[in-house]
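== Protein entry: sequence and backbone fold ==
=== Local backbone shapes as whole numbers ===
==== Amino acids and backbone structure tokens ====
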Amino acid sequence: MSISTNFPAIKPSLMLDFANTGSLDPRVSFARASTGTYYDGVTTAMAEQNLLLRSQEFDNAVWVKNNVTVTENSTTAPDSTATADTVTEDTATANHQFYQAVVFTSNPTTYSVYIKANGCNTVDVYFRTGTTGTVSSHFNYNLSTVTASVTSGISASATITDVGNGWYRITGTSSSNSASTVAILRLTRLGSSYTGDGISGVYLWGAQLEERSAVSSYTATTTQPIVNYIPVLQTAAANVARFDHNPTTGEALGLLIEEQRTNLLTYSSEFSNAAWTKSNATVTTNTVVAPDGTLTGDKLVEDTNTGGHGVYRGFVYSAITYTYSIRAKAAERTKLRLVAAGSSGVLTNVDLGAGTIDSGAAFGSGWTVVGTSIQNIGNGFYVASITFTAAAESGSLQINLLDASGNNSYTGNGYSGIFIWGAQLEAGAFPTSAIATTSAQVTRSADAASMTGTNFSSWYNQGEGALYSSYDVIGYNPAAASSFPVNVSVSDGTSSNYIALLNTNYGSNLYGYPAASVAGIAQYSMYGGTVVSFSINTLVQACVSYAVNNALYSVNGLAAQSDTTCLVPIVNKLNIGVGASGSLSFINGHIRKISYYPQALTAANLQALTS
């Protein structure tokens, strides 16, 4: 028999399809006293961009040379590879320059290149229409005095940054370029036009052109320009529901319900701030587009010392469970270590190249690892976390770079690092959505969604019915009383009279089951039989049918369990993603769909609905 023939003959009197509609039924009351973050499955931001071809192959024909020659791979580049080129003036009396024409689609535009003097200490960069047309912006750079200036240009700016070993990264930003603009780099050793000596010039590496108002981290190109996009973390205003999506696939996950949490770390994305102490490392600020779509991601860069390389900060721990997380992206280094410690502590190693995290380890005594997790949030960024139980003592939180072999102590090269953003420390047994901080801790309030009054009574049958929910759980606490996340319940506003679909830990995973109470007396005994065990972040479908002395329950298509000695409570409220009282046992997950049938269903109906 086809399973479709077993679906209920009646239609549901309530259907809340959060995943497909992305909206709240007007009968649902929703509240959250603070803002909250989520992914909308649509919004992206330009992350890496480089419109120049052959960005470190200046000998290639795509680069037009005027009275200069290029010797490829002739010296050591800023990344310690032998990929930097030498640009040398010839002996002509003329402009000594080279360029690449690019068609712009928007303004502002930022040009950058790594440069080192080789007999020539001054260069100019021009944004102009064609090679001889109108100059929209003109920038001058002096490698001897380490100065950058804007000679002409509307809304233009220039920078020069020392990156070590005689190398500088020069940038020029212009807001008035035409569609046929070329960016010309001209040697100006003896003026704009001069007689060259045939030996002077500069070393160059890593040219980049971006359609934005500030330079970002360098992205190499070959035969094609590069434009990458990152899913943008959205912020919902207070009292606005969050309809979350998978950031990498765009899949609609449904209504996000989370308990209240506080990010205990200040300056969560400002690692250059004094709140974060640097150990054999530096922080380059605002160098990569972060998960929120802004150019605020920092780069943690090792120095040349031997030892550990990272950042850390002090923290006074209580003897409770915490979750420590970071959003990070590989650069020259692909591995990092998260450490939370006092006299003892815990750590976990993260491989951003492979997108993996180990199970974590405790060292010393009095601290334990509860678990670790890692999630791909798009464009190479991952959120990695470690959950642990601490001892009551003062200690630190660390983000450490690891070398290619996974060593914490090694000799750095002075330029390699990892991009980091959004550090978070929460009192709780799993990570929740991002909470940004500056100079003070920030609390995200709990999500609350419910339906009462005639909005409830218009579809609910007190005597018999069936309640269905599809959902996932993002985390739970197996050691706490709140380790029974509820995905949906009906109640009288207390924990004495209710019917609920909830979950509890079963080994290292979860399983779903129904619960009911009449005047404070538990009603259902459907914990035995076949149990379906499922992991966090996986779809679950569950349905309970109720009537006096006739309750049925099925989850994920399993044969229904039954209870023939049960009463039915009188209720007046639908609680979405939370327990019967409306204040405890948050699902900490996504509600995709809730439906209600105003009569008891058969075991075959329940099995079909949850398959």
The first strand starts at residue 14 and ends at 17. The longest helix spans residues 603-609.
